[in-house]
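Quick question: what would this complex look like in 3D?
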Amino acid sequence: MAKSDTKTARLVPPGLPNEPLLQVKDLKTHFQVPAGIVRAVNGVSLTLDRGKTLGVVGESGSGKTVLARSIMRLNLGDHVIASGSAKFEGKELLDIPMSDMPDLWGVEMAMVFQDPMTSLNPVVKIGRQVTEHIRHHHGTSKSDAKDAAIALLKSVRIPEAEARFNAYPHELSGGMRQRVSIAIALACGPKLLFADEPTTALDVTVQHSILNLLAQQQRERYMAMIMVTHDLGVVAGRADEIMVMYAGKVVERAPTKTLFEDMRHPYTEALMRSIPKVSERSHTRLSAIAGRPPDLINPPNGCSFSPRCAYAGPRCFEEAPPLVDVPGSDHQFACWLPVGSEEGKEAFERNLAARVPQAVAIAEGRVTEDLTGDLEQAAAEAVAEAAAAEEAEGT
Amino acid sequence: MAGTGKAHLRPAADTMLRVEDLVMEFPAGGGKKVHAVSGISLDVAEGETLGLVGESGCGKSTTGKAIIQLPPPTSGSVSLDGTDLAKLRGEELREARTRIQMIFQDPISSLNPRRKIGEVVAEPLNVWGPDDPEQQRDLVHKMLDAVGIDPDVAATKRPHEFSGGQCQRISIARALVMEPQLLICDEPVSALDVSVQAQILNLLEDLKVEYNLTLVFVAHDLAVVKNISDRVAVMYLGKLCEVAESNSLYETPAHPYTSLLVGSSPIPDPSIEIDESVVEEGELPSPISPPSGCRFRTRCPLADEICERVEPQMEQIGPDHFVACHHPLVTSTEVNLSPTGTDKIETKGRT
């Protein structure tokens, strides 16, 4: 943890309470749509201390963005059903009247969105987009706000900040626009920053700069950050803790180093294995994950990852595993047959021997049966057959 | 970088596709031009996968499209098995193009939403294939099956009923139903989730062997490019920086730009220290008025006066490793260029 320590050994500034900045308990966000209820976030709990970074990782549709937006209360409309609790500095966010939320946005918590092309107002000069917040929240005079904004633009490394103050978003490149978005988010010194896929739309070189910039600003401002991403590589060296989401639930959560060294959930492992790595020889066969993310209106019975899981046993299709602690650590996972356990290994070997497609996909990288149709049922049947065959052999 | 030169080209007889001095310019108004691609030369041997990598705006997609003459290049030649496609017109070009097919970045928007999957995949056959509907149907089914889509279920459905990964499989089936020699993949996995990305990359590797394909793979993700390519060409602002066998490119990047790209790419391993000091300022120079000399010099830490005046030429620094830089990070002495180096490349071209 030597590395993480240098990153996180930030002393709590005097005068700040030592309680967690954000405490979320069993947060649920469901959307009522004509086809039924979409369980986008389905019972998520998390705790975030001041100045720390939490990485939220998952595929599209795992609920990671909705989670961030739920905490900020940006999901609007009659069709949104929110329940649970999200306490920010001890205050229950879900109880605050919607009309008072704007007082928190920008000052207490802010967000950097994925697409800098659309998150800025195209017909307003960037200077005004930055000063708007400062003037609204602090009542600063126009010229003072301008000075503050230029200082901010400089701090996010925008060259010729004075000239760019009067530019429109279309005059800037994607990377520059994302820097402006960051400047806007940081304008009123929030205590918590949500970065929702802040670099997905950007080139690798720009991504590297933007992530470094966020890390620098975070350290200087003693700000907590929730970084939402689908790329484990982005959070690997930058988050203190990582939470892996699947189908609206947390499937694994651990300090970054622990997660990478001792991953327990088959989904985390599968995600990790499916990433091509620069350190591997070319033409290294990737371990693909069979199937695709589940339908959130009619999620599968039992564990929602079971239809795609190479380790699945009969129980996984019937009973959803709870999030349990690894004894004596702050590592949690939700799985009946975790990676690295004897039971998990047996289940994988049994599934592979029976040529269950999910196991074959991991072992050989071959996915052929991924079409529509009832994936869950097919998977359950394949696993049940494998279990039965194993038993028959044993007796 | 900004290099020109053809030192990296192999003997014409050993290659299937040979692009020479390709220039692509677009009018930018006011008599100005966007220099999208400025004289690059590439070659691809049969059965090889060439990766084209670079930041957005470097001209990698334009190059991919120029190969298939969409639109034809401003100047330069694109030879496929000795025929210069850039000189062909009309029916001849249309005929020659059946040997090259392309798959695109956004799998959903590249399929006609109002058509059934069976029709989408059969479309190339309607133009060039057998007229017999029975025979067409068999070919379509065989191809859908090969990409892992159940033809009996899928043929009568429309694109919106499929996920992104499935749509990309269908696009691949549509491209391969003509049995092309060369498949150009323009960022085929960048719109997909990592789990699906792995499926598609593995599928492309399998199909390459099965259908004896040659691939030009355009992408911005270095790890993806390394995974699938035999040889990688790094582009910057319309020019080539470095061309090398993919393992040697990533192990010993010789061009400062390649090194910057490799160093910026996120590694899913928390034990690797991140150099947080790099917060680049500035932007990519405009391709309307690119810098003189080496085009990368405005961002290069090693740039000096010569880089401003003289455009570097492609030079060999190792077996199948070429770089266009005045101050390469690896020189040929370090790599210990073996006298058999050239022979090795030729052998590879023939196989």
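Answer marked as accepted. Chain B has one domain: 12-99+180-347.
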